[in-house]
Structure formats: structure tokens, C-alpha cells
Amino acid sequence: xxxxxxxxxxxxxxxxxxxxxxxxxxxxxxxxxxxxxxxxxxxxxxxxxxxxxxxxxxxxxxxxxxxxxxxxxxxxxxxxxxxxxxxxxxxxxxxxxxxxxxxxxxxxxxxxxxxxxxxxxxxxxxxxxxxxxxxxxxxxxxxxxxxxxxxxxxxxxxxxxxxxxxxxxxxxxxxxxxxxxxxxxxxxxxxxxxxxxxxxxxxxxxxxxxxxxxxxxxxxxxxxxxxxxxxxxxxxxxx
Length: 239
Description:
Helix content is 46%, strand content 13%. With 239 residues, the chain is an alpha/beta fold.
């Protein structure tokens, strides 16, 4: 059973999510929070697996609550999904950096919400390729910034891991990366896991941000320094 904490200041939204989630059978809502402060307290008390966090709440908002949960070593296993309207919400980029495992728009189809909770709970691909590409679009729209000293962290990666990271930042799924590099999806998953460990990234979302912030991929125009070729475009390697 996946334990879920709902954090939203609107009672009607919380009630709607509760009905939807608990009807699934394998999901259980263990608590409701009306603001970020209560969300952090309940996350510590209830040890939920996943927090569905509204980003705009009175007092402590979802961004700060996510940051506090991610910084608490006792809550290392708690995953946060931000609920927001991606196109207009200025806080999504900061939320990913703060430790959110992904985000969903509130008008997401019910089946997609249920699947997202399950995916996040088991620690697999925490952002779908389509959501990753939306994050890339947001990154590309931001002013170009100097490459930070953190770029030195990439020196810990092998050439293959750099290649995989660039493809992750390009929005490719593990299956697409596997096809492009002539590897098995399991091997790609292992590479991604090792990259996360070496770069101290919580999840795939932070890998995308790190790839841009360290300069492995150039944010302006979302153009990589060594652009990964997309599968199916006539540039796929022969296996």
C-alpha cells in the first residue's frame, strides 16, 4: 500500500483527490494538510511515501515545505509531487531544485495522476519525457548564466555516463536512450542510478537541471554542446 499525504489549502480539492486515490485500491491517503507547515509536520509524523503538494498555500508555501522535507535526512524516502499549472507558475523550476520529484498540472487525467504516484513511490523515472521537455523549455527561456564551479562535478562521470546524462537532459526516456546507444533499458537505468549517486541528485528531474547548470547542455535554445540525436530521425546508431 502506498501512503499519501495531501497538502492543499482548498478542502474541495483535497476531498476530490482523496476519493480518486483511495478508489485505486493500492493507494491510501494517510493525512491532509492545509498549508506547508502542516505538511512538513505530518510528513514527519505519518511517514508518507508520497506528498501531493500544492505550491501556492498560505504561510509556508509548497516550495518551502518541499525544501524542508528534502533537507530532512529522516524523510529521505519521502517523495514530493508538486501540483501546479506549469506554464504560469514561476516556482516550478525552484521546486525541482528544492527536491521535488516531479510535478503535475491539476487538470491531469485521473489515470495519469494515479500512475505518477506509483512511479514516484517506486523511485523509477520520476518525470515523464513530456514533462521533462516542458522543464527544458522553461530552462531554455531563462537568461543564459555563467557555468558554475559545480561543473567540476561532471569529472566524476565516465564518458558513457556523460552521454547518458545529456540524453536524459534532452528529454529521452530510458527506453529511447537504450535504443539510441544500443544498450538494454536495464543497463541505462543502472547508468542513470550511478549518475544520480555521483551527482547527489535525488531524481531524474534534478539531473535535467544539473545538466544545464553545469554546462553539459546549453540552456539557451535547449541546444546541447554535443547534441544527442533523437531516435527515429535517421541518426540512430546501428546496433
